[in-house]
Amino acid sequence: MRVKVISRSTDEFTRERSQDLQKVFRNYDPGLRSQEKAVEYTRALNAAKLEKIFAKPFIGAMDGHIDAVSCMAKNPNHLKAIFSGSMDGAISSLYLEACILVRVSFFSHLTFLSFLSAKAVMIIFVLITFRGADHQWDGNLFATVGAQVDIWDPNRSEPVNSFEWGKDTVLSVRFDPGDCNILITSASDRSLTLYDLRMSSPATKLIMKTRCNSVCWNPREPMNFTAANEDTNCYSFDARKLNEAKIVHKGHVSAVVFCVKYTYDGTYLVSGSDDTNLRLWKSKASEQLGVLLPRERKKQEYLDAVKERYKHLPEVKRIVRHRHLPKPIYKAANLRRTMIEAENRKEERRRKHSAPGSMPVQPFRKRRIIKEVE
């Protein structure tokens, strides 16, 4: 009688060093895995739970200001530093890697700073109050707003050009990153105005029902911009078609943070408010900081893909979408939701009790826009 025995080579199963990984042999035949979907669903559910467990977005706070932090700016050539300005006229340079304050300087005029020498390079005295300023992405000109829009050259003490459309105060200004000659402003008369430096007059003016406090261009799609409105919504527009908003961003309940900036790599964000502190946060609350090993990175990519695949299922969806909000924000959000539902019911009843066609249904993207002036 001949008996066949299993013979294995020791070299195929023995590790050369203790640091080597154990060799695991798998059969990838799909017919042997009848519970593949169930296993993936369990992994997605566990990944969603672990994401909430390890969600710790706060990194650190940076103090040093003695008044409310009102504005921030980034330097594209120095990614680890950020500059902040407070309402007492202090300008601070902050080192994000160590969360420490580097330098504070006090100025109350239109001032050009050199943080290499900690001295003012140039000071221009004017008789008006500035509400905002922005520099060209690729050029030497910069703009200031207040009673009017002024275009400045650093080598001159007077504006090279000035624009004025109405007598209302201009609140903010931003240059287009794609075209250095295009800029947009928001004013207290509820208007958004586009300017072209190659023209002697403003190009287009959009009037809304409520005032826009700030405006910003999309760095990846330079033809689009977003305006922060007083009705707690943000509206994204296409500069070539201003008769309706592309997207309406909802979810805010009130304005409590004065300024927020993302870092250039998108990993962190910095917020400043009236408690005189700057806070550093992770953009993804559960993201692991530091250098990841290849196996760790592949595992995280796999878990993200599994969560994306099963995000529509009830259990995974409930965990992923759940947010623990502070009590005041939670109550304000419920009140805001109740007000919106009541307004929609009232409008629907008015439409039912009016003549057919007298009150057409208007999309929300057009509801807050009054008119466009050329």
Automatic annotation (TrEMBL):
GO terms for cellular component: nucleolus; ribonucleoprotein complex. Gene3D superfamilies: YVTN repeat-like/Quinoprotein amine dehydrogenase (2.130.10.10). WD repeats lie at residues 257-291. The keyword Chloroplast does not apply. Its main location: nucleus. The chain crosses the membrane at residues 110-130. Residues 344-374 are annotated as: Disordered. PROSITE patterns: WD_REPEATS_2. SUPFAM superfamilies: WD40 repeat-like. Residues 364-374 have a biased composition (Basic residues). Keywords: Membrane, Nucleus, Repeat, Ribonucleoprotein, Transmembrane, Transmembrane helix, WD repeat. Pfam families: Sof1, WD40. It is found in: Nucleus, Nucleolus. The keyword Magnesium does not apply. Residues 283-369 form the Sof1-like protein domain. PANTHER family: DDB1- AND CUL4-ASSOCIATED FACTOR 13 (PTHR22851:SF0), U3 SMALL NUCLEOLAR RNA U3 SNORNA ASSOCIATED PROTEIN (PTHR22851). Belongs to the WD repeat DCAF13/WDSOF1 family. This is Sof1-like protein domain-containing protein.
